Sequence to fold (219 residues):
Amino acid sequence: MIKFENVGLRYGLGPEVLSDLTFQIKPKSMQFLTGPSGAGKTSLLRLMLMSLRPTRGLVKIFGKDATSITPAQLPDIRRRIGVVFQDFRLLDHLTTYENVALPLRVRGKSESSYQTDVTDLLKWVGLGERMHVLPPVLSGGEKQRVAIARALIDQPDILLADEPTGNVDPPLARRLMRLFLELHRSGTAVILATHDLGLMDQFDARRLVLNQGRLQIYE
Fold:
């Protein structure tokens, strides 16, 4: 689903922040992306999302060369990728429910076709009583859960999550991890970026470890 061959990335004329990355993300797989702060995890996720283009090397997404994908083709490809950003990117004028339902509304689905799914998912992540609240009155942990629910609602082929459990307490982090595992078992490829070694140790998943822009893989 994702293929990198000898990929390098630099910003402007600076040194490479990612160097010689070669790996594949297979369908229905699950992996953690980890490494120290500044190692390049967010840059790597942005390459997978095609919001960055590589300086050198080959990136393929769903079999397509990322450098040849046109702006007109991007929306259809990105609909197959669920993303949880560290800054949440919620729309403050929409309720919790409306933020989660937004990807389905954009696709033209009727509310009657997704109302139950959105409601059930929000209950599952502990926001059943916050469905009609606007983001400015939510806590950081609640915003994180809204962002996760929004990324999952359309059952993407790939989920990219940047520190998805970083703003929640340990019990909820484990609960969210079970949700990610269920999504993985249902056929979604899951890539979770995290610093939490204790959390990773609880799950049997491949690890992509970045250090100073280079990648080591532990199966």
